[in-house]
Amino acid sequence: MRLRDLQVPAEEIRSWAEYLMPAGFREGIGVRLTTSDGRYLGILSLYTEVPAHPTDAAREILAALSTTMADALDPLRSISAAAGLVDRAAGGVLLCRDGRTEALPGLPDHPMLAGGSRLLDVAARQLGETAHSTFLCPFDADGDHRHLRVTVLACPAIPPANVIAAVVVAPAGELSRLTRRELEVLGLLVEGCSNRRIASAFRLTERTAATHLEHILTKLHAPTRTLAAVYALRRGLYIPRALHRAV
Description:
The protein has 247 residues and is α+β, with helices and mostly antiparallel strands. 35% of the residues lie in helices and 23% in strands. The N and C termini lie far apart (63 Å).
């Protein structure tokens, strides 16, 4: 809508009377920017010193291009593109600063990504350490014990400011023949837990905990527990403590 399309004189509009007209502007137009998937981004405002512009034809052209401009300016565009690079992505959401979730353009919802879930709590905690992280989450479907790979991508500090990360889930992929318990043990190992603390967490004897670690080192071809932890952290080959089964 142009200034002359309004039913109110410019002198009675504070922004025009106090700022725009003294700056030399005599006409302007506001274009609503809505993305092709229906998300409102804001208003694009254009001002001119010539009262005859923008013309009716220019107004129609801007209206026709508004969706294209919105898609080009969409701050979620790069986030969606990055999320789309996750291999075999099965679903994703945008995680907001207040814990809410929003749809991630290009990916469907997933039941494990419902607002307030433990998985999203873990994902939010991962953000304080790195801009990108990946870990495993148990997922029991139809009585079949499986795992999902969770990828957390921190969002840059651009609007919408309430979005802090994209969280994407995908099939776990190859797990080096590690069992769920061994993946849980790795979750404590990457935290730096000792054998005693690992044993206490799972109500095991220290000898049983040590046996789990021996199996892990063998399967990962890691000579030390430190290298096993580094490997697991880099590959996302562990289940964080908050997602462990009840002992």
